[in-house]
Amino acid sequence: MSTKVKTLDVEEFSGWRARLWPIHRYELMKFLPLAFIMFCLLFNYTILRDVKDSLVVNSAGAGAITFLKLYCVTPAAILFVIMYAKLTNLLKRETVFYAVVTPFLVFFGLFAVIYPHLHLLHPSSVSIEALHQSYPRLSGFIDIYAYWAYSLFYVLSEIWGSAMVSLMFWQFANYIVKMSESKRFYGLFAVIGNLSLMLSGGVLALFSGAYFQQFFSSKEEAWKISVYLLMGAVVVFGLIAMALYRWMHLKVLIDKKYFDAAEQAEKPKKKKEKPSLLESAKLIFTSPELGLIAILLMAYGISINLVEVQWKHQLGLYFRGDKGGYAAFMGIYSFLTGVMTILFGLFIGSNILRRVSWFKAALITPLAITVGGVVFFCFLFSETIVDFLLHSTGIAATAAATFLGAAIVLTSKAIKYILFDSTKEMAYIPLNDELKTKGKAAVDVIGGRAGKAGGAFTQSTLFILFATKDVVFIAPYAFAVFTVVCALWLFAVKALSKKVDHALM
Question: pTM score, two decimals?
Fold first, then answer.
């Protein structure tokens, strides 16, 4: 039977079909609802990500993002994991999904309803200004408090990405998808994810941009309706995901052709050894290769964060408090990111990985971010020169910085998704089995956390140290850190290449 299926796979999936749609007709009943669940969750993720940035940057400023990520999102994520673990002990697998999704949808729905009146719930500008005068080193925390409703929205939107996509969806997919199916299904999930990015970006641009604003008396009035419509879309897509999840349990998972619960239960469950923070540190320090891979992860997270905060500050200056315009711009940015990632992955990325050495492929991401970051920071430092050069074009320096930063970040992320992630995983190939398993888990613990928090920690420390909330003021110091981090990144790639390229040859 297995031989027949294997032969059928070869016969049915050939040429472009094998690359673009390697799905059997009988598998559609399982693949399509699972794919649409992912589509819905990622659609919401993009909408929430761009709306939260628009709310925070245009009220508290881009600097507040660093404090929110480090001091609010991280503790909230830990709390969520603890609560999730308790839910899994108390409820059935299916019920846990509904129990996790529902509170998020309720909050986002209520947020849309009360958004026009949120200014009544926030502290007065007079009291906030007095706090800034009294405690200048705590300006980042004061801004979080000043716009606490936006801060709460930001935190829950951040958790949605990790909770719904990284945890809930992939846990469900890994539970019901067979190993033979995963090789074909999972590649398409990445494409679907980018299609979702394109659609949600387009929706955001449509319901927040100038075309939409023309039907209202002011941009602020238009934005209130935008929030209502966008959060309505989030609730609807969330409900669709829940309905599809339920349908799969009623129609798909009861059919042994698609899922055998007994077989799943009989599988010898390998206890995934996930080392503690201390064990992870010891493992990384005892293996030079793991240490270098951890540097790759940390360097990417820190460097892109340092550039992004400066860019979002310029974006905020460009739109001057116009939350709708900001959100529309981010919608277009998300749409273009999806398009570029798909095109780059299909026509460029795969060819690079096949035709050049690991060193050359791995070098592209740090070089792109280093060159892009240096150009962007130099642009910020040379505002007078830039104004003089742009005078004849009629383009303001802020506008130029906004679009330049968008192009750099967009390109960097597209390259990251295709080349950085692939080359990082390839770096584990020469390692022994223990380092491939325990070592990878250790790198994920240390490198992943440090990469996400490193940039936020650097900038929040600078804000506190210099008693300022001015993002541009700390730019030279952020650039110095950026330069050191990128240099370490390039060194790590060079050091790793000796072993990886040898193993691949």
Answer: 0.88
